[in-house]
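Re: that backbone. Tokens:
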């Protein structure tokens, strides 16, 4: 297998869920980890058996990021600035959620200490 330098990817039989992700994963792995050339055969089996052959080289740039590739497959335009704004909002939300989880943990610890005091018969602290 060490002699392989080029592989072809051909799909046939119509679309199915996840097919683009599989092609992207095969191409990425072959290029990134093995340094192979990846050829995408266009138009299914016809692109391989009819002359002239119908194919194109697949590169990492062919796919962009998974988000961009999925948007293109769905016929949507990718707005990089909107994507970055969304990522920043998600990160901010994540930080806010982390703070809330920490606050809840502190409240639960305070409540556990208060319950322990009450079970021992100690008076509840006043605030």
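Recovered sequence:
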């Amino acid at each position: 297998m060490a002699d392989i330098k080029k592989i072809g990817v051909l799909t046939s039989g119509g679309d199915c869920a996840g097919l683009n992700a599989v092609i992207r994963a095969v191409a990425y792995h072959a290029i990134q980890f093995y340094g192979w050339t990846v050829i995408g055969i266009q138009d299914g089996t016809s692109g391989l058996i009819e002359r002239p052959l119908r194919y194109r080289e697949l590169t990492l740039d062919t796919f962009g990021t998974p988000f961009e590739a999925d948007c293109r497959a769905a016929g949507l335009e990718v707005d990089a600035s909107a994507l970055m704004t969304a990522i920043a909002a998600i990160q901010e939300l994540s930080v806010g959620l982390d703070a809330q989880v920490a606050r809840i943990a502190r409240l639960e610890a305070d409540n556990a200490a208060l319950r322990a005091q009450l079970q021992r018969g100690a008076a509840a602290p006043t605030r």
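The longest helix spans residues 80-119. The two ends are 73 Å apart (CA to CA).
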